[in-house]
């Protein structure tokens, strides 16, 4: 796999161009918000989903109640945290040695799709329990999944902070084994701790964001990428363009069809559009309003309007749809083989 290369801010998307150290709104243009893409990795039951919920400040990822994995596929959620647009990709057991090759290969491809063009932070989620041989092999797994030098973009996030002794995480680390300390050094000694039972404790989230920003700045204010990510991003952009053209054609067809209506019905169509847009937040009200419009002589009007709104919505979400298109690539198979090979050595 090719070695990593950071992307200068001017080459990243517009929302990545701003300085990473300061979140003061006075320092940012009014029309821009910084974006940070975070991928959560770690063994099953470590608390990835709970940590994602804590960062975003709402229960949106399904949390495991035991060591059994609840999340079965990668999922992506976005929210604004401290003035930053945070994109979190929660992964299933990518490190789970029991995952069949076909499932693992699919999940690896989806994880790369959802974090394209590359993550700003790879967050390794670990609980504060004993350090296991499986976790000791984590560096190799992260390299196998994301590529060489990915650990430069990785920080450790400890969970179950409520179970720590009064000395806190510092005491836990100081009393840990030499093997564990060497393990942490491979990630630059970057770590943070969460008590996921206290989602309302936003101070722990703000400190996490500051540590992540420090790491991003040390990486030339860029995100992690490699040849695999570059290839995936090209495919996503191609899919995005194809979908965009498809929906624009369909939308134009509906616009042309609406233009062929008699003038009086064109006016009714505009009125219906405004009313439906006003009710967009309430699906139930929208459905009821559409039923009321059935009395119109040409009930094709609400049909046209509804389909126009549908394709406008599709255009707005075209990037997300493009990301969800699966690609069977030799690289995904190669990564899968490497990860499964590491399982055998544990």
TrEMBL record:
Region (Disordered): 1-31
Coiled-coil positions: 237-299
Keyword list, A-Z: Coiled coil, GTP-binding, Nucleotide-binding
Domain of life: Eukaryota
CDD domains registered for this protein in UniProt: AIG1
Domain AIG1-type G: 33-233
GO molecular function: GTP binding
InterPro entries: G_AIG1, GIMA/IAN/Toc, P-loop_NTPase
PANTHER family: GTPASE IMAP FAMILY MEMBER 7-LIKE (PTHR10903:SF180), GTPASE, IMAP FAMILY MEMBER-RELATED (PTHR10903)
Protein family: Belongs to the TRAFAC class TrmE-Era-EngA-EngB-Septin-like GTPase superfamily. AIG1/Toc34/Toc159-like paraseptin GTPase family. IAN subfamily.
Protein's name according to its UniProt entry: AIG1-type G domain-containing protein
Organism: Esox lucius
